[in-house]
């Protein structure tokens, strides 16, 4: 049996693994680079599905016997050393330097070992407040290993049963395709815009389509049976198909954001099908793409892609917990993190994963007889790390709950959202009932000034804001400024103050945690359709992820040139996209005459005492500065009209 096509295919696969792991790491380092880098995960799933199915039939079709026990043993030796070491090494670091992450670590460890961590994440996943309170889990990405583990356990058993009952490959292919399509449809059905997509992102049932597409491909396009010697014209066709499929893959990786509904309503399935086509091209011995993807760099990265994937999150989380001003070093810090990820991966690959993957009992017995001094020191270091990691698992059983979800910030935002919900609906009803459309801009005439001056003297309001730079005349005037505000958690944190400053019976403040720009389009369109979108629109978005000029342009187009947009720039030094967001806003202000950027970032610079520990959300005193500054800037802009 000729094995060369098989070997060429596997080597060519290193390029695909490289694309996948680079996309995932770059997305986590800076979503503005690989906006759809998370699409690297379907690449890994497709590879797994193809290789396992191809291996099974390559064995039984040539008269061999597929050993389930040997298969499981090889999977354990291949996957568990790296997985256990990343868990134990991370646990060792946590118990020594970052004890606030100990809570639930015991459950994280056990569920990863049992290959059910993805479901544990669905029911026990981290909240928004945990992610922004220096409490982000370094294990979030390990959900993929559990799905693959579940696949490795169940799929070979099904293949053995299919083979035993002589089920034809065509029917197995049909089964794979039907279940794959059903999985993609199920994902689309469960997806609800504006609702946390964790359930469908982590669920085995909603991510199964990528793996099964790989399985189906192996049934109709087995690597071992692909022959060389295609006609020149057919080679061209094959390579052009490869080019087009790769181009579409890259286009989706660079353009589709994780908040885009299209991703869950067929986008991820389309990407998987496209990748499946490219895999088919790479698998063929006459394809030029196999040679292009088989270079030494890709081979190195591909052979270590598992470790690079494993260690990316722990390195980034631990590094950024010590160096929090990420936005001030958008290039240097990511470079350092990538170097650290590579170094840790190389150490694990050479001294943990590879030795244990090929170890025999005789090797263990003879280790201290034949090993060098350096090998013994390394073994001792690894043993100490592992023992400390085991201690962290035990310690985690009694670790206190950081209770971030009931922090002062979380409680305030929850309280504001509940109080604002009723007021918002009442304000919308009041605006709908208004006989005249809102056409007042809030610009002050001489008569208005006299009226505000008299009211300031006779009936002063909101006097607590005066020490934050607002005069009593300003405070009276704000009650007549029509406003629709849409924002994220920073605005939600200050929504109670905004509703004090403006007329809460006529002003709409719509703010929510984790909100990104894409979600605001539907919200603004809804208010516009209802006829309650004010002449002044306040936007507070960008904390949770970057956006580009085109996306900002969609907001400006929707709002229209007759309304004025006030956009609060972001103070989020713990995230790499701070400068990206503020840079886009600065450029946009020159492009759109009806856009005013409120420089909260510049105003708050150096005032760490205005923020909670996350250095993103204003504390009670900072919230007063935040809302007062925004209000002053709106009034200043109105005076210039």
Spatial order of strands in the largest sheet = 2-1-3-4-5
- What's the tally of helices? 27
The main sheet comes to:
5 strands, parallel
Ranges with pLDDT <50 over ≥5 residues? 1-6
In percent terms, what proportion of residues is strand?
under 5%
* Structural class by sheet pairing and helices: mainly alpha
Roughly what is the average pLDDT, rounded to an integer?
90
Outline, from the CA principal axes?
globular
Helix content: 55-70%
What is the end-to-end distance? 81 Å
Give the total of beta strands. 5
What gyration radius follows from the Cα positions, in whole Å? 29 Å
Total domain modules = 2
What labels describe this entry?
641 residues, coiled coil, SGNH_hydro_sf, acyltransferase activity, transferring groups other than amino-acyl groups, Acyltransferase_3, mainly alpha, 2 domains, 5 strands, Rossmann fold, cell membrane
Structure, briefly:
This protein has helices at residues 4-29, 40-60, 68-97, 105-113, 117-124, 128-132, 143-164, 169-190, 198-202, 204-220, 232-255, 261-283, 288-292, 296-303, 305-322, 332-357, 361-370, 373-396, 408-433, 446-458, 472-478, 489-501, 517-530, 549-559, 578-591, 600-604, 620-640, and strands spanning 484-487, 508-511, 536-540, 564-568, 595-598. With 641 residues, the chain is mainly α.
């Amino acid at each position: 049996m000729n094995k060369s096509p098989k070997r060429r295919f596997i080597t060519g696969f290193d390029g695909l693994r490289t694309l996948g792991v680079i996309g995932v790491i770059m997305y986590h380092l800076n979503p503005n680079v690989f906006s759809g880098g998370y699409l690297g995960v379907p690449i890994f799933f497709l590879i797994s599905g193809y290789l396992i199915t191809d291996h099974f039939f390559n064995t039984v079709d040539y008269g061999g016997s597929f050993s389930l026990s040997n298969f499981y043993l090889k999977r354990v030796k291949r996957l568990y050393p790296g997985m256990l070491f990343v868990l134990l090494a991370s646990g060792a670091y946590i118990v020594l330097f970052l004890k606030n992450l100990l809570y639930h670590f015991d459950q994280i460890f056990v569920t990863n070992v049992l290959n059910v961590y993805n479901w544990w994440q669905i029911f026990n996943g981290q909240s928004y407040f945990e992610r922004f309170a220096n409490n982000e889990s370094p294990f979030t990405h390990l959900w993929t290993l559990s799905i693959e583990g579940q696949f490795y356990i169940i799929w070979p058993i099904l293949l053995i049963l299919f083979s035993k009952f002589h089920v034809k490959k065509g029917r197995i292919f049909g089964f794979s395709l039907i279940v794959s399509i059903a999985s993609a449809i199920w994902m689309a059905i469960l997806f609800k815009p504006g609702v946390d997509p964790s359930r469908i992102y982590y669920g085995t049932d909603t991510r199964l389509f990528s793996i099964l597409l790989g399985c189906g491909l192996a049934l109709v396009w087995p690597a071992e049976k692909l022959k060389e010697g295609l006609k020149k014209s057919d080679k061209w066709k094959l390579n052009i198909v490869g080019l087009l499929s790769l181009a579409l893959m890259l286009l989706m990786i660079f353009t589709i954001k994780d908040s885009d509904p299209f991703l869950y309503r067929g986008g991820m399935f389309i990407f998987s099908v496209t990748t499946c086509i490219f895999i088919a091209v790479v698998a063929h011995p006459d394809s030029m793409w196999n040679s292009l993807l088989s270079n030494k760099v890709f081979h190195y990265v591909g052979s270590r892609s598992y470790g690079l994937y494993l260690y990316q999150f722990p390195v980034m989380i631990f590094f950024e917990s010590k160096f929090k001003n990420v936005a001030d070093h958008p290039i240097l810090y990511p470079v350092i993190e990538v170097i650290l990820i590579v170094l840790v991966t190389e150490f694990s690959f050479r001294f943990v994963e590879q030795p244990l993957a090929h170890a025999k009992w005789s090797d263990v017995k003879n280790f201290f007889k034949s090993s060098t001094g350096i090998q013994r020191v390394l073994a001792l270091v690894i043993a100490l790390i592992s023992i400390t990691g085991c201690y962290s698992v035990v310690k985690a059983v009694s670790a206190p709950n950081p209770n971030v979800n009931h922090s002062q910030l979380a409680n305030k935002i929850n309280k504001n959202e509940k109080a604002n919900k009723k007021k918002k609906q009442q304000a919308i009803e009041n605006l709908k009932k208004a006989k005249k459309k809102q056409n007042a801009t809030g610009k002050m005439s001489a008569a208005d000034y006299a009226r505000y001056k008299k009211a300031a003297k006779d009936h002063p309001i909101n006097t607590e804001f005066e020490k934050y730079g607002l005069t009593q005349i300003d405070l009276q005037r704000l009650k007549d400024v029509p406003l629709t505000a849409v924002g994220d958690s920073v605005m939600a944190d200050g929504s109670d103050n905004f509703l004090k400053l403006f007329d809460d019976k006529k002003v709409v403040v719509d703010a929510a945690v984790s909100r990104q720009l894409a979600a605001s389009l539907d919200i603004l369109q809804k208010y516009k359709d209802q006829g309650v979108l004010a002449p002044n629109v306040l936007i507070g978005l960008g904390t949770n992820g970057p956006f580009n000029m085109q996306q900002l342009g969609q907001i400006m187009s929707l709002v229209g040139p007759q309304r004025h947009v006030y956009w609060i720039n972001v103070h989020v030094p713990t995230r790499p996209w701070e400068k990206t967001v503020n840079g886009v806003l600065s450029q946009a202000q020159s492009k759109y005459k009806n856009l005013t950027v409120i420089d909260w970032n510049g105003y708050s610079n150096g005032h760490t005492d205005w923020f909670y520990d996350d250095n993103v959300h204003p504390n009670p005193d900072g919230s007063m500065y935040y809302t007062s500054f925004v209000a002053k800037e709106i009034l200043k802009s109105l005076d210039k009209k």
